[in-house]
Amino acid sequence: MNLVHFLFLLCILLVTACNSGQVNLFRQEGAVATVEEPHLFEQNHPAELELQAQAALTDFFQSLNQGMYERAVELFGGSYDELFYFNPKMDMDSHDDLLKAGCELNGFICLSTLSSVLVLVEDQQNFYFDVEFANPDGSLFVLGPCCGATEEIMSPMSVFRIHVRCDDAGFCQVLDLPPYVP
To answer: Rounded to 5 degrees, what angle do the CA atoms 15, 24, 63 make?
Structure first.
């Protein structure tokens, strides 16, 4: 995607947000999101879909953090292959057990979100957020260099790009697993 196309999409997003009276770039300080059922809306309300995508993202990571793995399965539409790779003796179809193993045994960092900022929308169904996660004490999670690398070679990361996809009915699912620490 070239810069002009990106800026055009950003302008459309900002105009839509301003017209709806909502600005979707916000920081959530320890907020617990609950999304009981998908919110249905008409296709001409993209700001509502953005909010739904952001709520699904927050709810997914909150569910993982609180050990509510069955709920997290409902909110995850990505691949379980990486989790199965780490847990080859588990049933590939036992998604809640795979998520639990990922969070509790395999090194995936299942923290609540500290902030989420929408950075890109593709075809009104794919939303990309830059997400910061909160450590248990509320501080910012920073993934430092691993495997003997220095900070000069492998810079610390505190922002992670997370993809959320929403269907035509307004049901949104996260497609990326939490950050992994080897």
So the answer is: 150
- Distance CA(13)–CA(24), nearest Å, equals 10
Q: What is the 3-class SS of 2-50, one letter each residue?
A: CHHHHHHHHHHHHHHHHHHCCCCCEECCCCCCCCCCCCCCCCCCHHHHH
**Mean pLDDT confidence for 89-93:** 95
Structure tokens at 4: 């002009």
Q: Could you tell me the pLDDT band of residue 156, with boundaries at 50, 70 and 90?
A: confident
> DSSP secondary structure string, 79-90?
--HHHHHH-TTS
- The angle at the Cα of 102, spanning 88 to 28, to the nearest 5 degrees, equals 160
What kind and span of H or E run contains 133? strand 126-133
CA dist 109 and 158 (Å) reads 12
pLDDT band for position 149 (50/70/90)?
low
Boundaries of every domain in the chain: 3-174
pLDDT digits (tens, 9 = 90+) for 20-48: 333 333 333 344 433 334 333 344 456 88
Beta bridge partners of 132: 115
